Amino acid sequence: MGHNSEAIITGPASWPDVERLFGVHGEPSRCWCRWFALTGQDWKTAPPKTRKEQLKAKFDDGPEPGVLAFRGGEAVGWCAVEPRQCYPRIERSRVLKAAGAGAPEGPGVWSVSCFVVSPGHRRGGVATALLQAAVGHAFAHGAEIVEGYPVDPSLRPKAGPADLYQGTVKLFEAAGFSTVSTAVPGRAVMRLRR
User: Fold this and answer.
1) Domain 2-193 maps to which CATH number in 3.40.50.12160, 3.40.640.10, 3.30.479.20, 3.40.630.30?
2) pTM over the 0.85 mark
């Protein structure tokens, strides 16, 4: 156990720590958390290097686009959280459309879009700490509502770690979020108001 018994500390993300956490192998190093920020054709034409530059640019112009979790001084998790309008793919998504009329709009709605947790640190409370930090970060920067789009593994039993990058319904429930739609089976839209 040793390693995982150290306290988890969270805070706004810094680019060098994000770059180290995402590394050079695996999905984070290909996506650079741009899946929801780019729509179809833009995604296809942007190589990982371009996506990385786009995420890095986010650190230069405004609040950090996410939060980090640290254990023993090492970044072990990331949670992306930005105003929903920064994520055109979410705004056009089937999951959000299925939630129907009355979906709040505007800069006061922030989205928790993605979690990245180092393989050696999963199931150790990192995602819980990240979600709390993401909510705090969003509210500190003017959010009125924080929204998430988690998976319900009980309805999607084949969902593996790669499918759970948006978190689980249980994770969001534990953080005080309410379900506003389950119109897409196995996927929820959940909200927390300030």
Assistant:
1) 3.40.630.30
2) yes
